[in-house]
Amino acid sequence: VTNNLAGLSWDGSVRSCPVVGANTLQVLHDGSGLYCSSELIGVRAINASGDVVTGYATSVTLDTGSGTGSWTLSAGNGTLLDTVADDGLATYTFSPADNGEAWFALSYPGGPPVLDIEVFETGDPNVRDTDTEGTLVFSPTGFTVTANPLPNPPVSPVSDPLLRRTAGTDFNVHLTAYGTTDDDPVCGVIEDYEGVQSVQMWQELVDPLSGSVRALVNTVPVGPSATAPTAQNVLFSAGQAVVSAKYKDVGRLRLGFQAGSLAGTTDSYVSPPADLVIRRVETSAGVSNPGGDTLAEAGFVAAGEPFQITVAALDAESDPTPNYGNESASEGIRVSAVDLLLPVGGRLGSADDGVLTNDDTFVSTALPGHYLNSAIAFDEVGSISLQAEVADGSYMSTGNVVGGLVGPVGRFYPHHFELVNAAVDTQCAGFTYMSAPSVSLTTEIYARNQSGLTVENYDALLFSDDLAAVDLVAEFQDNGIDLGSRFAFAAAQWQSGRNNVLDPAAQFQRLGVADGPFEMMAVGVRVNDTTDTRQLLGLDMNAQTSGFCALGATCNAQRIGTLDAFYGRMVILPSQGPEDQDLDIRLQAQIFSDGAFTAFAQDNCSTYQNAQLALSNFSGDLQAGETAVLGLPGATPLVGGQVDPDNRIWLSAPGTGNTGTVDVELQTPAWLRYNWSGVGDENPRAQMTFGQYRGHDRIIIWQQDP
Q1: Please, are residues 266 and 161 in contact by the beta-carbon 8 Å criterion?
Q2: What is the pLDDT of residue 692?
Q3: Is the peptide bond before 408 cis (omega within 30 degrees of 0)?
Q4: Could you give the angle at the alpha carbon of 71 between the alpha carbons of 70 and 74, nearest 5°?
Q5: Residues 68-78, mean pLDDT to the nearest whole number
Q6: Pick from 307, 324, 316: nearest CA to 367
Q7: pLDDT tens, 224-266?
Q8: What CA–CA distance (Å, rounded) separates 628 from 314?
């Protein structure tokens, strides 16, 4: 604890902190200075991307290169050491609180008039300034060029830079005749500098170094360089004048002014664009964004599919700024999704942060100041609003430029659907009776973007309109007749991009007339997207056509299995026997095949029990109560489509003399009933007869075939 409080490591050793390094240093000054007044010099630590290194904490050496000059700290939290007065050298150790920038006052009362200020890291002289600031020219008199009128007497050093002036805006530049004269040896405003003066004016492009646009002073273009200035008459009063300037391009530049021996320049101020305007939003094929914000409106592109955006960098008068992107550390453009307009409550991209794929891959176009991104993509479904800004969030380290919102952009829709899990099975030995809730159905489908990720906005609770339906298709013996509509199952809603049907009691429904059997009927699943016609991956089936469908062309479903479906019925076979013996009740499962009903030996699942049997219509000497249904009380499965011989059901013997008939009716499920009498599906019924037949003593039971 003691070591920690002392700023040491746990073992008492000196604690070392990681150093945030710079790739280069940047010197800032206005290009001209006065021997009699301190000149402000700025130093910034810059990384490879051209951004200020905010955590910079390294020692640098300041050098006038002339062997003269003294340094004092003007703005900074670090430590300045100017050990030897007026030798032009000093060291400054940056503090992290400087955020990578510090300012110094250089006192230069005499020496060579032209200086190339050098700044380098004391421990690594290879990290140094790039000389892009140009030379610093000193003279006894000159113009101070400031953003506001200079007070008289002025504060030394004079510090009122332009810093940042938006492209295309008018701003004032104040010129003040300043220094010492033979008549007035006191450094300050030269008040007797009066009247109309012819002033040479020019621009110096600092970054980028060239451009096609010239700055305006009092609406007149200035010269392209100090060697080719233009002249204007400027009215001075008590040594001061004001002109109106404007630059309709972007970058870092200076404005220079000279009248006779008086010369001065502005600071190297930054001119950012006024706006980054999204001009065009189109598909890769050039189809304009439809701007749909409901599911009923036209779609734009699939989620994750590239589209193209054109952004214009404009000045305040809505004219293009052709130098955007030509900076030495090239400034870029980033477009983000700002709002999700559809569906409300969804997520703004897969990370819910509005970040678009390839959001900053812009290139310049043939139209000056216009930039095209052909690879940008939004990886969710819905409609969004977009906004452009400077790619790194700050134009030349002076602040961001953010364009207006554009939207709705969309609608974005699923790129495809993917079946990841599917099965069709039955609860009874591979077959189902038509209309029996015995088909076990599983389909798990996801809505995906182009990259194969789930689009969670595809959710029935978020969209008020219907989303794509999941249907079954079915085909028997490749006959081109789709039987899928005969399936009844518990459909699922889309939830977070997933549609999961899990129904253990689905049905293949029977019609009003018997048909089938449908053995090895092919069953498939289809996503019926009537809005955007998106389809499943891996299509390999079309139940509406015979023969093989063309993969990806005429196929519209994915096969998930086969099913045997039969039109079935349960039959009670009529029986006859003596009244002094029990009479078996015989059941038989039957299916419709080849135009007739035949016994169905595969049924080992349908059940029977004595409670399902009812007696009625007694005749002859047989009365109600004289016979009863006997057997195990619990449900018993058929064996081979008939009553289990080890678990029979029967009518008890009514006794001697109690001869006659009785109707037996079996309560069966709907899928085993039949239209026996032409009035609709009914339970099976048969007549049982008790009575002696003396035709032959070897005959025990006499029965009628069904």
Answers
A1: yes
A2: 59
A3: yes
A4: 145
A5: 93
A6: 324
A7: 999 999 999 999 999 999 999 999 999 999 999 999 989 999 9
A8: 99
| pLDDT recorded at residue 702 | 52
How far is C-alpha 470 from the chain's CA centre?
A: 25
- At 8 the pLDDT is 44
Assign 397 to helix, strand or coil: helix
When comparing pLDDT for 219 and 51, which is higher? 219
| Strand segments (E) across 108-183 | 114-115, 118-121, 136-139, 141-146, 171-179
Quickly state the pLDDT bin for 426 (edges 50, 70, 90): very high
Higher pLDDT, 134 or 235: 235
Residue 227 CB burial class (10 angstroms; 0-12, 13-18, ≥19): exposed
Give SS3 for 27.
strand
What are 424's strand-pairing partners?
441
Q: Which residues pair with 596 in a beta bridge?
A: 593
For residue 158, the model assigns a pLDDT of: 84
pLDDT, tens only, 158-204: 888 999 999 999 999 999 999 888 777 888 899 999 999 999 999 99
Is the pLDDT reported for residue 16 higher than 50? no
For 626-668, the DSSP string reads S--EEE-SS-EE-BTTB--TTS-EEEPP--TT--EEEEEEE--
Query: Which tokens belong to 252?
Result: 């870092």
Q: What is the C-alpha to C-alpha distance for residues 324 and 367, in angstroms, rounded to an integer?
A: 12
SS3 152: coil
Tokens 């000389």, residue located: 131
The b-or-e profile of 148-181 (16+ CB within 10 A means b, else e) is eebeeebeebbbbbbeebbbbeeeebbbbbbbbe
Task: Work out the burial of residue 427: count CB atoms within 10 Å of its CB; fewer than 13 is exposed, 13-18 middle, 19 or more buried.
Answer: middle
Contact between 245 and 217 under an 8 Å Cβ cutoff? The reply is yes
In this model, does residue 7 exceed pLDDT 50?
A: no
Tokens of 702: 């006499």
Structure tokens at 462: 């978020």
The mean pLDDT of 12-17, rounded to a whole number, is 43
CB 470 within 8 A of CB 495: no
Render 200-231 in DSSP notation, one character per residue: EEEEEEEESS--S---EETTEEPBSBTTB-EE
Residue 74: closest CA among 127, 135, 29: 29
CA distance linking residue 254 with residue 137, whole number of Å: 14
332: left (phi over 0), alpha (psi -120 to 50) or beta: beta
